[in-house]
């Protein structure tokens, strides 16, 4: 990935081809590239001027996932624009240093367009803060965009959703990192920061190193944690990010692997792939698969040699909530069989919803007040759903019915809802009824099927 300039970017979305493996090249989509898009590097306190040009055959958007920008700049479904057109938002970068991303967000098309490649990473830098972390981009500060994809016998990337693919979201049998299948990366023999983005449509990862080594998580969706957190595993649901620092000082090669996490709940997906039969679920959840591997090269190790004890985090006291809202993510229909059949016949995007309503571009579901802290209670039917909110970062108070320490979870914009979950949320950017913000499940097949709502902030 190339680094774009601080201000003034062109993102031309276009058709491409990419040979991911031996055999036939795959038709793909990308921004500026055949597949995925360039790294966008923004500076806090500046304005990023972007020309998004649509040279594809369909309407697209560019949504700045995780950025705190007003609704008319957010790139949501209402901002879809036609082939041949250009959208030129001026984004005020009012966000702490963080790893964010961008992707197309056309209602009903998001899963397919992101699958084919319309996504990229954003790094926000804060020029006033030196966190003391590895920050030599491409050397000891490395983006990892993790996705799963299927390929047909000719080697072409394929997106075939069986019934389970709609129900549970798509699962691919090959793991791609930055568009390459299980790549090997040479890193320096010291501390290396990995910015991991789960840009998969539906797969949840539970990452670890094959040798069981401890690494430190330093950042999450919305920015840095208050202190590095030692861990041996890292779970990332779709659209979640984590910055981790791994010590390669022992110069031993390493393999990044993931446990095969099912989709949770009653369906207990296990290792079911998209299109798998309905009755052969419940795969072995102990199996692991390789994501990528690392070799340690001879390059001179650069600073820092050790991790700082504390980090400049933007977590603050959000105060007492002034109101509570509840959200239930539904697979619709009466009971499990009902929702299965609804899903089967509901390929028109009417099958799934939130609080009983499937997404409707012409209906505003909630109205939020600017700068008021709210408590949101989120719960879900049958399986785990990554719940995402546009326009802000939030703090997780409890997850799956258990209290969590916001200091350890950090600022988030996606939370995996697997049982009752509570977040504290506040908005400081406006969104009108013409260009509202979204909340939705980030399993892209669920989002496209209507598990999304929209809201104003005023
Ligand atoms: Cu990453 Cu509404 O999106
Ligand atoms: Cu978003
Ligand atoms: Cu979902």
TrEMBL record:
Protein name listed in UniProt: Cell division protein SufI
Record-level Gene Ontology MF annotations: copper ion binding; oxidoreductase activity
Domain of life: Bacteria
UniProt keyword Cell division, yes or no: yes
Domain Plastocyanin-like: residue ranges: 15-127, 348-457
PROSITE patterns according to UniProt: MULTICOPPER_OXIDASE2
UniProt KW keywords: Cell cycle, Cell division, Metal-binding, Oxidoreductase, Signal
One Pfam family it belongs to: Cu-oxidase_2
Listed GO biological process terms: cell division
Key word Oxidoreductase present: yes
